[in-house]
TrEMBL record:
Involved in beta-(1-->2)glucan export. Transmembrane domains (TMD) form a pore in the inner membrane and the ATP-binding domain (NBD) is responsible for energy generation. It is found in: Cell inner membrane. GO terms for cellular component: plasma membrane. It is a peripheral membrane protein. PANTHER family: D,D-DIPEPTIDE TRANSPORT ATP-BINDING PROTEIN DDPF-RELATED, TRANSPORT ATP-BINDING PROTEIN. GO terms for biological process: peptide transport; transmembrane transport. This is ABC transporter ATP-binding protein. Pfam families: ABC_tran, oligo_HPY.
Amino acid sequence: MRRHAPRTKTRLKSRRSRGVVLSIVEVGEDLREKVDARRDLGAPLLAVEDLHTQFNTSRGIVRAVEGVSFTVNAGEVVAIVGESGSGKSVTALSIMRLLPRLTGKIPKGKITFDGRSLLDLSDEEMRKIRGREISMIFQEPMTSLNPLLTIGLQIKEPLQIHLGMSDSEAQARAVELLTLVGIPDPAGRLDQYPHQFSGGMRQRVMIAIGLACNPKLIIADEPTTALDVTIQAQILELMKNLSRKLNIALIVITHNLGVVARYADRVIVMYAARVAEQGSAEAVFHKPRHPYSMGLLRSVPRLDRPRGAKLETIEGLPPNLANVSTACRFAPRCPFRIAVCDQEPPLFSTDTGSLSRCHRHTDIAEGKITWESLGGAGLNFAANTEAPVLAVKNLTKHFSVSGGLRSARGTVRAVQDVSFDIYPGETLGLVGESGCGKTTVGRLILDLEKPTSGSITFEGLNLEGASSAQLKAMRRKMQVIFQDPYSSLNPRMTVGQIIGEPLHVYQIVDGRQKIEARVAELLENVGLRPEMAERYPHQLSGGQRQRVGIARALAMEPSFIVCDEAVSALDVSIQGQIINLLEDLQRKFKLAFLFIAHDLAVVRHISARVVVMYFGRIMEIADRDAIYQQPLHPYTKVLLDAAPVPDPTIEKQREPRLIKGELPSHMAPPTGCVFNTRCPMASQECRETVPPLEEKRPGHFAACINI
């Protein structure tokens, strides 16, 4: 590939004055002119045929991918969706040939990229393709970026290796790339390290590295799962626009069906290592021809529809890939199973032009199969006349930051003048971008941090003046469910020991037999079998571990639970199960929840009222229907506009309203309204005056002087 380098350098130098985007587009076109004829003839850029990928483990051979076939054309966006363990990421790693050398192998199949068989290339030949012609953007950028090297060095490295650029030429291209992905002050940022970037900016750096050598194919594995809705919209719009301008093919692996609806041309639904359904985005979303696809779509809470009583879910778990049966792999979880489902179905051609691995696809097309509603009563969101279980008044938290290498001493104003109440049996949603203070508010309520000022009253007790005995009793009534259950469960303790420990410490139940009986009851309350008590956390799925975390919280017989991103890392179907579980437990025990999340659809579904935070301050508080149907604050409107809806017809007709710029520094906050630096309605008064949180409509509060 070095034979292209001199021509690339000349083009880049001569055309730099004509604009950043233009120079990169023209370089990309120059490098690809030799393959345009082949693509014009209809040959796909990537063709995966009958791919099988296996892993040798202590428990036998795990068949992670079996018989997967698909194609990707230049400039096309193909989404791969499915539950964890379905084979999505392993398919991507197989294409990149990044499988573990000792345990992973591809015993069968063919991967053809741009006319070359990737499985027949030597390691050295494959290294020349990786990064140069195929790049991959991983889910967590901090695991891919070297913390010891500057951002500039990491962007310049592939340019110098693959394109033979000099240091000065690579430096100039690195500045262009950072400008292209929307990072301010790109020249200055090149000398910074990954820890000095926000999560969204680190992901943009990963995209810049992926684009550095003008690849023909980008594989993005859950590129936006950990990002806020506004940053997610910015990054996905960027990738979609670059795909169009540079004719780059995109494979997006995700469980966010809204993202798929907005950006994908075609969708591949995977289940238990096989393709369950494959077709255009419109066909899969509007006319699914596989029960699993139908179940996934019904499991998603939606912003564009009235809230139902319950989320539809797919009960059960995917099969163990080390021991799969010869029947349809979805049959044990399928409500439409019949005798023929005892045989493994092939991929059938359907009436929509899609492919479906279901014996009953014609019955689905004819309307003979419909997914019945779960029914069930909705939560009572009537005005609560009882005293609040939690009252937060003028809560403020400042952190002192000590000076260190390349950093200055200062004060971080994490939470500023926050007030709200939560009533018995109510769920209060708390939303906002990363860094807005959501988690800090939760930690202050749990007494894990001490407030700088303000008060927190729980069941009539002011926590500031409480004695140690009172705080101990309070902690029993106030529990937390963490985002990552695996990191909060002791890996050396069984599930029974984890749940039983607080029963013993607080003497809630006496005697071993009574504790075991109570543990079994708690497991049944959260939908787990009693024998799960003998397992360790690593032997459970993500959804099961989250249920264990909920059972441990319930063991204390609390009246209030803080749910900190409790479902953000879960698959769509498992997420629906956990949300329904929390609602059932709330009805049964009259629990109050503070539900912290960045998924606006989930918050709308589960919450009675919603608090919107930005940069440590509350922007808006209202009933969940009012805040979603008639938002008042400009920031709330931007959040809602940025959230994708799982419907391609709707998404293709609207342009997302992208919020401009990054969050300002907490050590140098803007004067006046904290949102004025990014607000499209900001006036001079907004830059000088901090707007109070006022009741603009009955029960609807907003902090904006322009309303």
